[in-house]
Design a protein that fits this description.
370 residues, alpha+beta, OB fold (Dihydrolipoamide Acetyltransferase, E2P), DNA polymerase, domain 1, 13 helices, 13 strands, 32% helix, Helix-hairpin-helix domain-containing protein
Length: 370
């Protein structure tokens, strides 16, 4: 049986909310005796695999390992926040995950795939990968090398007697155990994510900001005066804004904990208010809105040269509400509708409220327009 592809149905399902992004596109198939193609690119959760003379690219279900390079800064930022580590540590962790997966996949293994779309450059499919009765995704999460996040299958794979939601809960329990034991990414910062959340944040009213540089409003020239911050890092800081605590600077590539400690006497963070109908709001409150229609206030759209599903285009949506910036999100829409939207926003000077579906794409909160 070959891959059963239904791109038009999948696109319509995404746009109109008929199915989640992990829409089923075929029956489960078992590929026994599969092998990793080490000559092709792979990371901790995506692999080039050979089976009976054919080449495939598979992406693990409900597992997201960190990036191994700096091509996707927004994803790195989210992964860094998840583990409470710096951007540089996130990339280091991603490389560890890739090596772990490479070692796990030595020799032959079994791939369970329903041929659902893996979302990515080229053609790739979702899969569960097992070797000697052990699940690669579960092994990555339990070793603190991956987030329990992303797509779940629509139906259990052959041999799995429980529901797909039991599988998701199982991986989440493994994540909690890895966090408690402080292994992998949870050990990198010397503190667990829970401990990070328990650190009291200093509010603007409680801090003495007199004479300090506010990282959220400072100019490039002002940022350049901070210790160990040159023009390159100053530019990265402005791109990563807004910040809610000074410690969030460790999500900027090239800024270490030592650098942050060195600027505490000179810099502060005055958190911006989180406005409704904005990217910041939906990221903070994603659990209440994911897989549901939302109203988002968009100020401008910038086309992106990123991968998008067939027939779709992607843009960066700059959000704002009542004149206050609210951050950016990636927005996916059918190409014709995206073309119309880009033309319309080019002539606007005020935010426009748009209805879209809020989705969780491998840990990244995105918008899919009607």
């Amino acid at each position: 049986m070959g891959p059963l592809r239904q791109p038009l149905f999948l696109i319509l399902s995404i746009v109109f909310g008929i199915l989640p992004l992990s829409a089923k596109t075929g029956e489960w198939e078992i590929l026994e005796g599969a092998r990793l193609d080490k000559s092709a690119y792979y990371d901790g959760d995506s692999f080039h695999i050979r089976h009976k003379g054919k080449d495939y690219v598979f992406r693990l279900f409900y597992v997201d390992t960190p990036e191994t390079d700096t091509r996707y800064p927004e994803r790195i930022k989210g992964q860094a926040k998840y583990f409470s580590i710096s951007a540089d540590q996130t990339i280091e962790l991603g490389k560890e995950a890739a090596e772990f997966a490479k070692d796990f996949l030595r020799g032959s293994f079994t791939v369970y795939t329903d041929w659902s779309d893996g979302w990515g450059y080229g053609t790739r499919y979702r899969a569960i990968i097992m070797k000697d009765g052990e699940d690669l995704g579960a092994a990555l999460v339990s070793n603190g090398l991956a987030r329990a996040s992303g797509f779940v299958p629509d139906t259990p794979w052959p041999g799995y007697k429980k529901s797909v939601w039991d599988y998701r809960n199982y991986l989440n329990r493994l994540k909690d155990e890895a966090e408690r034991n402080e292994v992998g990414g949870w050990a990198m910062s010397g503190r667990s994510k829970k401990a990070e959340e328990e650190v009291a944040e200093v509010t603007p009213e409680e801090s003495d900001a007199d004479g300090l540089i506010d990282l959220n409003t400072a100019t490039l020239e002002e940022l350049d005066t901070l210790p160990r911050i040159g023009p390159v890092l100053a530019s990265r800081i402005t791109e990563a804004r807004p910040f809610f605590t000074l410690n969030e600077l460790d999500q900027v590539i090239g800024i270490s904990t030592k650098t942050i400690d060195g600027m505490r006497a000179f810099a502060t963070v005055v958190p911006p208010p989180i406005q409704p109908h904005t990217a910041l709001y939906f990221r903070e409150n994603a659990r209440y809105h994911v897989n549901a229609p939302v109203r988002v206030s968009i100020l401008s759209l910038t086309p992106l040269d990123d991968w998008a599903p067939e027939g779709f285009s992607v843009a960066s949506a700059d959000t704002a509400y009542e004149g206050i910036p609210g951050g950016t999100m990636r927005l996916f829409a059918p190409s014709e509708k995206m073309k119309f939207a880009l033309e319309r926003f080019a002539s606007l000077s005020q935010p426009l409220e748009v209805r879209a579906w809020l989705r969780d794409y491998e840990g990244e909160i995105i918008l899919v327009i009607y």
